[in-house]
Design brief:
alpha+beta; elongated; five-stranded antiparallel beta sheet; Immunoglobulin-like
Length: 371
């Protein structure tokens, strides 16, 4: 991969899926120099810090700096030569207490197992294995001593009546323990059902709020006729939260793929995703938006607002983070990629193109923040 004029923005994935921490990394390379911005939050309290690294492999990494665990951001200027290119450093990770808690691949797909191996140290592994072996041997020796002593005590002091009474007591204790475990499992099941019901109600409330917000946009009677017409068009589609994180000042709609209606162009600057209308040459080796929309059955449309005014329009084409599934190789503006939400069973993300609503030209993404 050539490292000249390359830009990417990726959201962090938690190593532990139940972890509430989150953030993003943004990379902008021009030639051999560039800038990197890393933001993260909910890692811990405000008086503690974590470390941010770029990983080439287990033995080669670059420390970008320390980041506040409550809510922090760091900016780093990078310079790479031909012998040490940015593409060699595929993983950006946040390390807390010696463990990777957040990670993102910058160029090639990476699994959580590969990420965990980055923090392994062979010397520590061997040392831990030796310590474990010694500890197990000591525990076995102690068990043998205790067993021998118990046998001696039983021979000297126990009678048949005492042994029988002891066995009866153990059986009673076992029944009490079993009853407690059954009760605990039942209470856990009831608690789980209650949480699922609360989650359903919360989703319904969120859906109602989204519908109410859309209705307010449609009822708007001010001078911005363009915005009113746009929201009227989008009222035919489903509001969505398609990305892995919720971004502030963004609204998204899920648009199903319609083979017959592909060339109607009902949304503004629709030629952004239809190659026949866009002034770039198209060959059989270039992946088109239409082929990806047909493959995954939909695309997404987004609106970004600043000061309650429409600042940018966004087209999101589903696809994997690979060269083969980047629309038009990024020539038409699809240079940014984000993970899809966890409900996306196909596991793909979205290639995003940001459009100036006044000129229809592709533009840079805004400085996003996570809600």
């Amino acid at each position: 991969m050539n490292n000249k004029n390359y830009r990417v923005m990726k959201f962090f994935e938690p190593v532990n899926k139940n972890d509430k921490s989150r953030g993003y990394v943004r990379l902008d390379i021009r030639g051999v120099r560039g800038n990197m911005i890393v933001a993260a939050e909910n890692l811990g309290h405000a008086k503690s810090f974590s470390e941010v690294y770029l990983y080439k492999d287990k033995d080669n990494k670059i420390k970008l700096g320390d980041i506040n665990n409550k809510k922090g951001i760091i900016k780093k200027r990078l310079t790479f030569g031909n012998a040490n290119a940015i593409e060699d450093y595929n993983v950006c990770a946040v390390v807390k207490d010696g463990k990777i808690v957040l990670y993102s691949n910058l160029f090639n797909t990476v699994s959580p197992d590969i990420v965990r191996k980055l923090e392994e140290d062979e010397g520590n592994v061997v040392e831990r294995e030796v310590e474990t072996s010694v500890k197990k041997r000591e525990e076995r020796d102690e068990d043998v001593k205790e067993t021998a002593q118990m046998e001696k005590d039983l021979k000297e002091e126990a009678t048949e009546k005492a042994v029988k009474k002891e066995l009866q007591g153990e059986k009673k204790e076992s029944k009490i323990k079993e009853s407690g475990e059954i009760k605990e499992r039942k209470e856990y099941s009831q608690d789980l059902e209650a949480k699922e019901e609360i989650l359903k109600v919360a989703k319904k409330i969120q859906l109602d709020k989204s519908k109410e917000k859309l209705k307010k946009n449609l009822d708007y009677q001010g001078p911005n006729r363009y915005a009113k017409n746009l929201y009227a068009t989008l009222s035919n589609y489903q509001l969505a939260e398609p990305l892995s994180v919720k971004l502030k000042n963004f609204e998204w709609w899920y648009v199903p793929y319609d083979d017959k209606g592909m060339h109607t162009g009902i949304l503004p600057y629709y030629n952004q995703i239809i190659s026949s209308y866009y002034p770039y040459p198209v060959s059989s080796r270039v992946t088109t938006c239409a082929s990806l929309m047909k493959k995954y059955g939909h695309y997404i449309f987004g609106i970004y607002k600043e000061n309650d005014e429409i600042s940018k329009l966004v087209y999101g084409i589903p696809g994997e983070f690979t060269k083969e599934e980047q629309p038009y190789k990024g020539m038409t503006g699809f240079k940014n990629w984000s993970y899809g939400n966890k409900e996306n069973k196909e596991g793909n993300g979205y290639w995003l193109a940001f459009v100036n609503p006044k000129t229809g030209e592709a533009t840079d993404p805004p400085q996003v923040s996570i809600t």
